[in-house]
Design a protein that fits this description.
The chain has one domain. It is built from 10 helices and no strands. The longest helix is centred in the C-terminal third of the chain and has 56 residues. It is rod-shaped and about 90 Å long. The termini are far apart.
């Protein structure tokens, strides 16, 4: 028990210099920042999963105001609510300035609506990518920070062993093993950050694809007054398989 305490983390901290302590503090701060972002993005993903039916509830509403109200109730402060609100504001702006003899009134209505929806998607994308650079940086640099601490700790240990003149196994194993702990600290910080970055990136990609599809439906609705009906894949494949036979029948009959 005494040997374990003599060559543990506490002993490493006591016998280490300012460089090792500074690296340990840096790794600790990186770990705190990483887990903070992991918890924040995890809570956001849980909230997003509870808002799955908000889009269908919006389209099931009898009018635009009722749909916006349902979005604000089922998906408050979400990218989908912001997109619908931005599209409604753009449509209202077009109607308000339709008859005015100004430069803005001469712009194409679809172009104004498209730019407004793209602006909302860009803002939502920036919000989704917030903190991702920090996670990527921590995941890629933490192992090297820990490795630098290991190299410095081994160098510091070998210098002390050389000064004492004792290079037996029991004198070398302890300091070198303590220095290797820094590598373990770096991996402990990096692995959760990398896993969280991959998971959040995939979730963001799925949400942005859904947001893009919602934007296309909104543009079609504001332009034509009707949502584009979803096409069944099986029905489309059936139509394609029967199309050549139908077109070939007149040719055979003419022959």
């Amino acid at each position: 028990m005494e040997a374990t305490q003599a060559f543990g983390i506490a002993h490493l901290w006591e016998q280490s210099d300012l460089v090792i302590r500074g690296i340990a503090v840096i790794l600790m701060l990186m770990s705190i920042a990483s887990w903070y972002l992991i918890l924040v993005r995890g809570l956001r993903q849980l909230r997003a999963r509870r808002q799955v039916g908000a889009i269908e509830a919006f389209w099931a509403a009898p009018n635009l105001d009722a749909g916006l109200k349902r979005l604000s109730e089922l998906a408050p402060d979400s990218s989908f609510e912001a997109l619908a609100q931005q599209g409604a504001a753009a449509a209202q702006h077009i109607r308000r300035h339709a008859g005015n003899d100004t430069l803005g009134s001469k712009l194409d209505a679809d172009e104004v609506l498209t730019r407004s929806l793209r602006k909302s998607i860009a803002l939502s994308t920036a919000g989704l990518e917030s903190g991702m650079t920090v996670l990527a940086s921590i995941g890629s640099t933490a192992p090297f920070v820990g490795l630098f601490g290991t190299v410095w700790g081994i160098y510091h240990a070998l210098v002390n062993i050389s000064a004492s003149g004792m290079a037996t196994l029991d004198k070398v194993a302890g300091p070198v093993g303590e220095a290797l702990i820094m590598t373990a600290f770096g991996l402990f910080v990096a692995i959760p950050a990398v896993l969280a970055y991959n998971a959040v990136t995939r979730a963001n990609r799925v949400e942005l694809s859904e947001l893009d599809a919602f934007a296309h439906d909104l543009q079609a609705w504001f332009s034509t007054g009707a949502r584009i009906a979803p096409v069944s894949v099986a029905h489309t494949a059936k139509d394609r398989s029967t199309a050549p036979a139908a077109s070939a029948a007149p040719a055979n009959g003419a022959a």
